[in-house]
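Lecture 7 notes: from sequence to structure.
We start with the chain below.
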Amino acid sequence: MKFNGKTLWITGASSGIGRAVAIEFSYKKCHLILSSRNKDALEEVRGICEHNGSSAEVIPLDLGNSESIVAAVKKAQAFNKTIDGLYHFGGISQRSYAIDTDIAVERKIFEVNFFGTIELSKMVLPIMIGNGGGQIGVTSSIVGKFGFPYRSSYAASKHALHGYFESLRAENVAHNILISMLIPGRVKTNISMNALDSQGKAYHKMDDGQNKGMSAEKAGRTIVNSLGKERKEILIGGSELLMVQIRRFLPRLFYYLSTKVQPL
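Predicted structure tokens for the same chain:
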């Protein structure tokens, strides 16, 4: 995948990994569409991207609102009829035990992380097919590979993304649709600050593990480099990624460790 001159749409581009990826892409001299709910922060990112030599368009987007998604796609097509890449970084995390979590909170997590992500993808997919192909990058998590305390609905929404987009990949090989699952471990962003508690309120705490994680900038470089190599699964993080392999090859050890590891 060559990014120079391509039109690339990044959601969650106002902060964290999405922001870092947008800035990293901007060095490729491409056409960027930047989306999230925070228009002011997007404008700041746009300025950086344009300084780096790429054009950029700001399109505010709420993944939890279908009307917002439809409107955003119309605006994106008005900006450029071709969409070569769609990269999903918008989403919301969770910090609460399953037994305490209101079902409305669980539905909200799925609405944003799963349904919003697939709705946007389904609208962009025909555009890509009509233009001869494209790339979709979907941000999962290491808890999209296994369950983990304090993350039940978040983990479930990420598991669902794996099943959906692996199926979508298989269905669209003939259409030259490339799909990469992005699997971060601990990356230093505000994801825990903005996570939902059991009642749907912002958690407003920085996890210790998150605070010690890889920088968003390093994660962005890793992701863009791996997307260029068209890797189907991209693991991002440090020693915590070992849990993915332990779950796969040593399940009994995983089941023991998952009850002992501090979730925060």
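Points to note: The first strand starts at residue 7 and ends at 11. The chain has one domain: 7-257.
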